[in-house]
Design a protein that fits this description.
It contains 13 helices and eleven strands. The chain has 350 residues and is an alpha/beta fold. The structure holds pyridoxal-5'-phosphate. Pyridoxal-5'-phosphate (PLP) binds next to α5.
Length: 350
Amino acid sequence: MKYQRKLLAGITGYVPGEQPEIPGVIKLNTNENPYPPSPRVLEALRNLDTEHIRRYPDPACSRLRRAWAERFNLPGPEWVIVGNGMDDLLSLAVRAFVDPGDAVAATYPTYSLYEVLCGLHGARMEYHDLDDRFGTPESLLSSRARLCFLTRPNAPTGVSATREETAQLCERFPGIVVIDEAYVDFADDHCMDYAARYENALVMRTFSKSFSLAGMRVGVAAGHPDLIAEMMKVKDSYNVNAFSQAAALAALEDWAYMRACAERVRISRDRLREQLTGLGFSVPRSQTNFLLAVWDGRPSARELFEALRERNIFVRYFPVRRLENALRITVGDDSQCDALVAALRDLLCK
Ligand SMILES: Cc1ncc(COP(=O)(O)O)c(C=O)c1O
């Protein structure tokens, strides 16, 4: 294509999971929550009127920033920025803190969007391989890159770096440490307090998973106000629409509802892990709402993925190093998980 920029020639855009419009599909491929959002979300949306459509939304997302700061005992709303999904915030972090040509560190494997964002920015990924049990590699601590993404718990492995390892990284890494906590509400602990403890830490969350608001696209980052101010410079003026702001605020205010849904998912996750292990998969203990089911037998993991798809059961398969023998399976409700297990049992003739 004669109009293409040189930079884009070598880049493949991020490939999101499929969103099939098939009635009765069992969709376990994009880590959505099987439960609906808090009833307060719909109520808040119903309370909006045409003025909220006619006028621009609050460009600063003031109410949501304040509510987030209060919930996590951050000194004030200037410690928080809201994005159009966390993906927006990840992109802002790269654009605010990385120069073209700089190195950006991350573990491997991890969330593959980071590499795309770096590529689009002319930055280099510096990967540090997870150890054999998907644990955090020592080498990450001696990286001199400009920014580091630590997905905690990690995707697509489900395994989490400890709080101690994360603290060490913030202390020893010379640049910005983005702690991606997209799945942390399904984990045993979190690092939101590191936003105030370390001047180089940016702790990011999404409303897409535990709050069941993937369609609304809202994410939050917390960090020192100097960092937040840099990201504010780069963002689109009105990056979060009025409906999304209202929905996220209502969801945040119903914290107990979110916790109850997350707890149900955690129970189903541990049940599904046992069932998959019983079928012969090797499944690392997950701190997220998905499981990485490693399968070295026949049919291959890719063949299983395709056969499940034919039965309208969608899971995720990544044809890349260290993941070619694995399926990433979102934890659905128990009936969805049971349907998946029954299909696998059939496919594996067990
Ligand atoms: C590790 C990780 N970080 C960030 C995101 C982005 O979430 P959002 O839907 O808020 O853009 C995802 C989404 O799947 C994710 O897996």
